[in-house]
Amino acid sequence: MTNTIEAVFFDLDGTLFENKNQVVPPSALECLYQLKEKGIKIIICSSRAPEEMEHFPREVYDLFDLVVQSGGTIILEKGEVLRKIPFVHSQIKQVIAYCDQHEIVCRYSTPSQGGYFSKYKRDDVDGIFAYLYHTMPGQKPYEDEEVTGFYAYQTDDDTKAALAALIPDANIINLRRVLEFTPKGVNKGSAMAWCCEYLKVDPNHTMAFGDGYNDIPLFEKAALSVAVGNAREEVQKAADFVSKRNDEDGIRYALKHFGLV
Fold first, then answer.
1. Nearest to 211 by CA among 8, 15, 48
2. With contact defined as beta carbons under 8 Å apart, do 144 and 89 qualify?
3. Residues 16 and 54 placed together within one structural domain of the fold
4. What is residue 23's DSSP assignment?
5. How far apart are CA 70 and CA 89, in angstroms?
6. pLDDT at 135
7. How confident is the model at residue 169 (pLDDT cuts 50, 70, 90)?
8. From 1's CA, which of 12, 98, 159, 223 has a CA 20 to 30 Å away?
9. What is the pLDDT of residue 19?
10. Which domain holds residue 66?
11. Where a domain ends, among 156, 182, 208?
């Protein structure tokens, strides 16, 4: 089956991208070129919102055939938006108001106007952005913008249940430090299915790399799934193959193991 892989999907942070040094490891970059030379499609499949891609290396970004952002709500081709699935306006307005009322740090992301903390911020949350993205969202009250990404930085069960009641049927993933929301039916797996149809790729000939809980829906759709060695235990259990850590050439190790490079 690996000889017939037509497309490879890559999560970014903790998978393809090594956040500590803010680089795609040279071994992984070389593999991207080799995949493209073989005619294999390569796709970013990330939960990063548009503003969080600001400092991602442009020369690497431009290699990809498609880019999935915000957990599947936005799909781009060479910078052009192909698909956009925003939240229902009345629901996102309610959930932000609830967070503001209960002093919950939350962030909303728009497809073209950036992302913002609503009413509250915390130093530890700022630290996440400084480490992962080398950027910092602004802060302003929600003003009825179109929203394609929503995140709440309080992850206890009561908060999750209260917010879920305000956005019925939303997909909510607890990433330990943040609750990540996507609209009904939207996740990395559904985004992968859409990309396959658009690129005319057989889903039975796909491969996916990831490290986080939000990559499990991607693994469920891919014919071959790979968790890097630094992935959460639950994510490793969901994968077909566990590679080395992403900062120990894990991307190359898996691709070589399966004979793709």
1. 15
2. yes
3. yes
4. B
5. 17
6. 82
7. confident
8. 12
9. 87
10. 2-84+186-257
11. 182
Task: Compute and round to an integer the Cα radius of gyration of the chain.
Answer: 18
Give the domain-ending residue among 136, 154, 182: 182
Read off the CATH number of the domain in which 130 is found. 3.30.1240.10
Q: What is the mean pLDDT of residues 182-195?
A: 97
Nearest of 216, 220, 118 to residue 163 by alpha carbon: 118
Predicted pLDDT of residue 136 = 87
Are the beta carbons of 181 and 35 closer than 8 angstroms?
no
The answer to whether the beta carbons of residues 118 and 96 sit under 8 Å apart is yes
Chain length of the chain: 261
Give CA torsion, residues 221, 225, 228, 233, to 10 deg: 70
Confidence (pTM): 0.95
- Residue 244 near residue 217, CB atoms below 8 Å: no
| Sign of torsion over alpha carbons 133, 134, 136, 137 | negative
Sign of the Cα torsion 212, 38, 200, 148 reads positive
If you write DSSP's letter for every residue of 33-79 in order, what string do you get?
HHHHHTT-EEEEE----GGGGTTS-HHHHTT-SEEEEGGGTEEEETT
* CB 171, CB 182: distance < 8 Å: yes
Cα distance between residue 55 and residue 221, in whole Å = 29
Q: Nearest Cα to 221, choosing from 205, 245, 198, 200?
A: 205
User: Both ends of the chain: CA-CA distance in Å?
Assistant: 15
